[in-house]
Amino acid sequence: MFTRIARLLGVLAVTLALAGCALPGSNAGSMVGEGKDNASIVTCRTNRDQLAQQYSIAQSGAAGAPVDFAALVAELKVKCPSGGAYSWDDATAKARCSIHGE
């Protein structure tokens, strides 16, 4: 009986999180409350991953010449769906978005 109740509570928590709601004491759904929809977040993450991959390729083929990340973003015409600006973080070696982070 306890297992069934725990399983139902788990399903409820996932359902609420997907709906943008949160259980008391959790941070699930907090991004929805900030006006960030999941599709934009996923698209931005995909764009950042793609930019990081292309930047790495460009860096390896640059024959010692530095590659300008901003120029690469402009050349690839990649844009954050929420209007954020992409930049390169040397410390983490990741593409960042001014809205969605890394």
Structure write-up:
A two-stranded antiparallel sheet has the order 1-2. The chain has helices spanning 2-18, 30-33, 38-60, 69-76; strands at residues 86-89, 94-97. It has four helices and two strands, in the order H-H-H-H-E-E. By secondary structure, the chain is mainly α. It has a domain at 38-102: Pantoate--beta-alanine Ligase, Chain: A,domain 2 (2-Layer Sandwich), CATH 3.30.1300.80.
Main sheet characteristics: 2 strands, antiparallel
> Would you count the extended β strands for me?
2
What is the H/E string?
A: HHHHEE
Bin the helical content. Answer: 40-55%
- The CATH topology assignment of one domain is Pantoate--beta-alanine Ligase, Chain: A,domain 2
CATH top level of one domain? Answer: Alpha Beta
- What does the overall shape look like? elongated
In brief, what are we looking at here?
The chain has a domain at 38-102: Pantoate--beta-alanine Ligase, Chain: A,domain 2. Helix content is 51%, strand content 8%. The protein has helices at 2-18, 30-33, 38-60, 69-76; strands at residues 86-89, 94-97.
Top keywords for this entry?
two-stranded antiparallel sheet; Pantoate--beta-alanine Ligase, Chain: A,domain 2; 51% helix; 102 residues; 4 helices; mainly alpha; elongated
Q: Topology, pairings included?
A:
Layout: H1 2-18, H2 30-33, H3 38-60, H4 69-76, E1 86-89, E2 94-97
Antiparallel strand pairs: 1-2
